[in-house]
Amino acid sequence: MALINEHFLKLQNSYLFSDIAKKVNSFKVTHPKDKIIRMGIGDVTQPLAPAVIEAMHKAVDDLATTDNFHGYGPEQGYSFLIDAIIKNDYASRGVFLEPGEVFVSDGAKSDCGNIGDILRHDNSIGVLDPVYPVYIDSNVMSGRTGVLEDGKWSDVVYIPCTEANNFTPELPARRVDILYLCYPNNPTGTTLTKDELKKWVNYALANDVLIMYDSAYEAYIQDPNIPHSIYEIKGAKKVAIEFRSFSKTAGFTGVRCGYTVVPKELNGFTLGGERVQLNKLWNRRQTTKFNGTSYITQRGAEAVYSPEGKEQVKATINYYMTNAHIMKEAIQGCGLKVWGGENAPYLWIKAPKDLSSWKFFDKLLYEVNIVGTPGVGFGPSGEGYLRLTAFGDRDDTLEAMARLKKWL
Ligand SMILES: *Cc1c(COP(=O)(O)O)cnc(C)c1O
C-alpha cells in the first residue's frame, strides 16, 4: 500500500486564474461585441531575440553531426553558459563567483520549489505578503507551514508590503529560519534600495537566517541605485541563495532556462549545530534528480550575452517598460494610486473607494473591458489591490489606457 504525502491534501486549489477565466467567459457571452484587453497574465508576448534564434538553430545543426553531437551534458550546466553568466551578470557588478557556485536549470520556478529538498521540514518560513505563490505552496508540500487559519498558514510569518509601509517591508517580529525575498517584486512591481536590502542581509547575518532571493525581474531595473543581485551587498554570500531566470529577461518562458547561485561560503546547520555547505547538498540534489538543461536551450541562453543578443534583449525590455510608463502615467492621470512599473513590468493599483480586489476586477472588466489580476490572489495583504502587467502589445496598451482616461 502506497501511503501518500498527506501535506498535499492541505493545499488549497488555486482557483485564481480559473476564476478569472470564468468571469471573462461569462462576460464574453453577454457582451459578444466588446473587445477585451488582457493585462492580467505574467507571460511575455514578444518573440525571442534573433541572436538567440540563430544560436539555437546552429545548436540543432550541431546535433545533426557525429562530431558535434551532444548527449547528456553536465547536470550543473555547460561551462560556456556558466562562464557567460559569471562574467556578464556578476563580475560586471563587482561580484565574483566560481563556476561551481552556479547551477543552470530549466527555470526559476523549479529551483525555488525544489530548494526545500536540502532543508529540514521544521524550519520556519518568512514570506513577503503579497507573494509569488510557489514559495508558500512548495513549503506546504514538505510540511513546513502548519495549518491554514483565516487564509494564513500558522507556521508562516507573513511580512506585509502595503501602502501603509510604502511597500518597504519591516523585519519580522517572529523568528524565521528561511526568508523568501523577491525583488523587483512580483506582484507589486516595487524594489528595494541598496540600503534597504543591506538591512535584510545584516538581519540574516545576525540571526542565522537563510535568504532565498528571487531576482527573476532584475533585467527590468532602470535605476542605477537598485541592486540587481543580493551579492552586491557585503556578507550576502554567507546568507543567500539567488534565483535567476531567462524567462522574463529574454522571453524564455516557453524555452525554459534559469539558474541558481549557491555560494560556497553559505552554510546550513545540522541539528547538532555542525555547519554544512549548502552548495554540496544542492549539487548532490541536482546530480541525482536532474539531468541538465538541453544543449540547444543553453546555446540560446549563451547568445543572450553576445553583443547583438544584449542589444536585442534590451530593446524588448525597453518595449515592455515603455508600456509600463504609458500605463503608469495614464493610471495616475485617472487619480488612482499605483506602484511599480518603473523597475518592473508590473503595476500595482489601489482599488478606488475601498473596493475589494474582486469588485475592482469586475468593474474594470464590465466598464472598460480590461482584465487584471485581483491582488488578494497573491496573499491577504493584496486585498484592495489589482495587478496589471506591461507585457502586452503596444496598441492594446494604448487603447486600454485611452479607455481608462475616458472612464474616470
Ligand atoms: C516568472 C517568475 C519566475 C520565473 O520562472 P521560470 O520558471 O524561470 O519561468 C520566477 N519567480 C517569479 C517571482 C516570477 O514571477
Automatic annotation (TrEMBL):
Coiled coil: none
Pathway in which the depicted protein is active: Amino-acid biosynthesis; L-lysine biosynthesis via DAP pathway; LL-2,6-diaminopimelate from (S)-tetrahydrodipicolinate (aminotransferase route): step 1/1
Subunit comment: Homodimer.
Sites bearing N6-(pyridoxal phosphate)lysine, chain numbering: K248
HAMAP family the record matches: DapL_aminotrans_1
Residue positions binding pyridoxal 5'-phosphate: Y72, A108, K109, Y132, N186, Y217, S245, F246, S247, R256, N291
Keyword set, alphabetical order: Aminotransferase, Pyridoxal phosphate, Transferase
Protein name: LL-diaminopimelate aminotransferase
Keyword flag Transferase: yes
Xref: PANTHER family: AMINOTRANSFERASE (PTHR43144)
Family: Belongs to the class-I pyridoxal-phosphate-dependent aminotransferase family. LL-diaminopimelate aminotransferase subfamily.
Origin organism lineage: Bacteria, Pseudomonadati, Bacteroidota, Bacteroidia, Bacteroidales
UniProt binding sites for substrate: Y15, G42, K109, Y132, N186, N291, R387
UniProt enzyme class: transferase
Catalytic activity: (2S,6S)-2,6-diaminopimelate + 2-oxoglutarate = (S)-2,3,4,5-tetrahydrodipicolinate + L-glutamate + H2O + H(+)
Gene label: dapL
Gene3D superfamilies recorded: Aspartate Aminotransferase, domain 1 (3.90.1150.10), Type I PLP-dependent aspartate aminotransferase-like (Major domain) (3.40.640.10)
A Gene Ontology biological process term: lysine biosynthetic process via diaminopimelate, diaminopimelate-aminotransferase pathway
GO molecular function, one term: pyridoxal phosphate binding
Listed EC numbers: 2.6.1.83
Domain spans labelled Aminotransferase class I/classII large: 35-403
Cofactor requirement: pyridoxal 5'-phosphate
